[in-house]
Amino acid sequence: MRPVALLAAALAWLGRYGTQGFALSIFLGLALPQFSAAARPVLPITIFCFTTVVFMRVDLGITASLLRRPAKLAASCLWLITGPVLLIGGALLIVGRENLDPGIVLGLAIMGAAPPIMSSPAVAILYGFEPSLIIASVIVTTILSPIIAPLLVELLAGAAVPLDRWALMLRLLVFIGGGMAVAFALRSWLGIERIRAMKANLDGFGVLMYFIFAIAAMDGVTRAALENPKLVLFVLACVFAVSTAGLVSSWLVLRLMPASERFMIGYGTGQRNMGLLVAALGAGVSPTTFLFFALAQFPIYLLPWLLGGIAGRIRRKEARQAADGR
Fold this sequence. Notes:
The chain has 19 helices and no strands. By secondary structure, the chain is mainly alpha-helical.
């Protein structure tokens, strides 16, 4: 078998086990701490590649219809920005910022202020959901984040936080604008039908990018788990609580939307692209805050697998409703 065909077959195999691959990659990242430092420089490349794949697969017709009727898109974006702030801000008011480590407070503030994770559309595709609403919502909220995120971080953390807006904006322009340009060039070259036929290969490529990201993000987590297990367990409880609250609150607040869209907006509400803000903060991120960021990857990697059964029931129910409505 030729190397290209072998690679395509391997990616297709990974794609068929996408949600399981996400879950496995986080534990492989923990098991390979010696590679974390080497993998960290390629993080921007993995984000760029993932963004490109998302734009390659977007249905332009459905996305254009969302822009012609922007009410649903506006409601989704508004909730994706304000929902985490309300949830995390309310929790901080109840517990009291002064009762928490400042690094934990900053981690929670970054989580609440960050845009939804860019891989949300890929998770929707893995579940068999139409991803156009979550794609458009993620892109809009990410573009707005250089303006909104610094204000939200300061609001949630309760103190001024050094954040370079222009550096973050440039980063977003490179990732989103560059990803769009490469994606549409590939769409023109390959054609949309061929891209659809490559679904399993592209899913597998996404799993591979997740795996590389996991290795880099897990730097120091194993050591922290051995030296301070109580802190690690507390942070894990925090990030899973935010993820669960984001999903449940979205399901209740956005009940006028179809179930699959509600589900994916809820997923994006709880899973946040903290890496953009952590990178922009640079030296302003303490070891505790970076540990919070690393542990916040656990729900991102595990929930696609854990929620697969619920997503399957939603998909089958909507398919039956569509068939009955014909």
